[in-house]
Prior knowledge:
six-stranded mixed beta barrel; Formate dehydrogenase subunit alpha; 19% strand; oxidoreductase; globular; 24 helices; 31% helix; formate dehydrogenase (NAD+) activity; iron; binds iron/sulfur cluster; alpha/beta; repeat
Amino acid sequence: PNAHQQADKTIDSVCPYCGVGCQLTYHVKDNTILRVEGQNGPANAGRLCVKGRYGFDYVHHEQRLTHPLIRREGVPKNPVDLLNTEQVHTAFRQASWEEALALVASKLKQIKTTHGGNALAGFGSAKGSNEEAYLFQKLVRTGFGTNNVDHCTRLCHASSVAALLEGIGSGAVSNPLMDVDQAEVIFVIGANPTVNHPVGATWIKNAVKKGAKLIVADPRRSDLARHATHFLQFKADSDVALLNALLHVIIDENLINTEFIKTRTEGFDALKANVATCTPEAMAPICGIPASELRAVARLYAKSKSAMILWGMGISQHTHGTDNARCLISLALITGQIGRPGTGLHPLRGQNNVQGASDAGLIPMMYPDYQPVGNTEAQRRFETLWNTPLSSTPGLTVVETMQAILAGTVKGMYILGENPAMSDPDLNHARKALAALDFLVVQDIFLTETATLADVVLPASAFPEKTGTFTNTDRLVQLGQQAIDPPGLARQDLWIIQSIAQGLGLSWNYQTVEDVFDEMRRAMHSIEGITWQRLQREHAVVYPCLHEGDAGQAVVFTEEFPTHSGKARLVPAQYRGAAEKPDVEFPFVLITGRQLEHWHTGSMTRRASVLDAIEPEPTALFNPSDLNSLNIQPGDKVSLRSRRGEITIFARADSCTPQGNVFVPFCYAEAAINKLTHAALDPHGKIPEFKYCAIAVHKN
Ligand code: SF4
């Protein structure tokens, strides 16, 4: 499209990428998006990053799916050599919607009748709307008859949410990101907002310019570290050691908020006993930060009038991710740095709707609004609302589902908009599992790596092709509006979910997105006060919003916590380290993550012309001294190998990556780094350890 052409319409919506939730305007001519412009939304005030501004023409890409596809008789599913796009017609034939939907319904029914509902599972998407997430989990729970429903939150902040629910009774942020403007101290740990939440990072940098003190803690030096008062480059799996040292100093030097601890928390004595021996001197050799620096940071955080903690996947994607988050929660609680503007806890949500999808119940152990599966009262409530008996057994998480497929207990799956054949850890194992399913239906906009292993592929609508609500990292419910029509026979996702539900015999009859949203309001107390009309008028409303006219609460926990006692719970954690350590055969630590120009498994951004032109090739980032000692030049091809798999990739010099570590983005299918990652899980959040495993490096 020519960006200088005159648009014939403009549509206000939100960005489809990260959890910051920037509002934007699509400029459209003849069903083509010409350009995107930042809107004056509450999270972005007109700003957009490179992805939001230039990452839109994937919707017009020639590889868009435009017809339902059915795998041809006798074509095997090959988990080792996935199909490429050119091979699609040899493996699949085009079908009508009637034929494809009938096949999906009959196969799912057959598996349910023969093996029971728990032989089925569904992965929904944090890229879909709240309404899609809500209907998807309702379909799995009421149509499949199981709680085996999950999505990429399991690979993202599941451990943070486990710790937050346990500690303060709510898995969402306590304060919006913009609150950094009111913080005296900002503590960013295990997050790289300049890359992953770029507009959010601009607010942090602005706050620093106005005088806020910034503490950045990360094994890799991020761009944000340039603005930091203190930068702690700690060893990659030593978060708990570092944080326990900070807790020790604060308690030992009596920098605690005694009144807050007494009136608002439980469990202080156990926490104090747990960190009694975690002196900075004892923890320094483990985390690699000098004791004096640990003391200085602890004092700065605890003594400030208002201090805010923000964290990302560097905290959560560990087998000790829940423990990492427990320590951060304890830091805020013992100092009383929560419940006021400019304070609190902010796990930076990754996907644009990972908060909303989790809120809507797209998780195996919770109904909508975090009502626990297995709680009799919650079960009765949803059985009444949905007019169907429900299973009281919590379902399988993402990685557990893969294990269950290979164990033969899960036989059929419905995957909407997720790409586990790229995003799961130990990919060779995950792809083998997907290929082993008796029946797999995938709903997506491209023939993703996961879709190549499907029996039926359903062509879905891209973000600008539909209307729905999306909840950003700040708990802001925002309205995404349809700007263009889907191509060919591609359909709205809500229509597809409802059609499958009807095929399974459910008498659903949602006419509009608004119908679904209205039911969600009845199911979810937190958004009860948000009307569709208000969303159309204001475009963004923060929850909790308990009654019509309620302004919503941007800052929560001002008086009490949503726990049984109203008090928060301090939970001690002990340093354990990573599940797989480097050794002689695999001497390097692999850290995976994202890069500025690409999004997650790359299915959208690698088909966005500007973004792919900037970053077209997969690269592994090495400290220059490691390249030197391995006799590797930047640009050389190297092979990376772990106990689980091997890839070939280009080497890149990066002084921000510490010696002995290698950083690789996970968005490149031709060098799928998750073939190497470790599927060991955090015992509470069931999140895999994407941020640490042992690898070997060889020059090709
Ligand atoms: Fe989109 Fe996030 Fe960039 Fe905003 S910061 S434009 S929401 S990717």
